[in-house]
Amino acid sequence: MPGAYEERAMTQARKAVVLFSGGLDSTTCLAVAKSQGFLPCALSFAYGQRHSVELDAARRVAAAMEAHTHLVLPLPLGAIGGSALTADIAVPKDRDTAAMEAEIPVTYVPARNTIFLSMALGWAEVLGAQDIFIGVNALDYSGYPDCRPEFIDAFAIMANLAVKEAVEGRLRIAVHTPLLHLSKADIVRLGTSLGVDYGLTHSCYDPDADGLACGRCDSCLLRQKGFMEAGIPDPTRYTPGR
To answer: Which CATH architecture has domain 4-230?
Structure first.
């Protein structure tokens, strides 16, 4: 078995696909991948989201953090609809944690992480990468079913049955979820310790025309909670009065 030094050396030149929205979680996830010696290949999606300003943040953060490469793929999930993020459905506002956890919210995008991970899997195979990072979180989150450990475990099993390179034994796909069991405060502390500039990121589901965060949607409230509990100033630019 290799020791700690050998294990670090083995990962230093390895590419990893990082699902990347430009938000707090995915940015921290990219920073973790870099800290572990991976070359992060950031993958973002223009999927018809109403908060498309996040793509500007993704490009900004990927450049600032010197991602190995950054690919933005178009996906027509807006044509499917079914979510407040992709259709003309109101984004919930001013909800407490109990309300967020009571049911799967309308901001859930049908099968989004399944689709995102599948695209990441295809790109990873082309890159010769066997590592995929995703910033899902099962503690301070909005109740999405595709953020649960059971889903990630099932996808990882499927991934190794689905792609040529894995079936022929040339690589084994690993899906990394370094934030899965962290609170938002823990995530903020971790990212801060890794030098993340959260002022470059965007998390709001319903920003105004200038891209300012509403401060009232579930994502904004969880983000605010994270910074407050971490004791770190929140650099988010909110609409006036928030």
So the answer is: 3-Layer(aba) Sandwich (3.40)
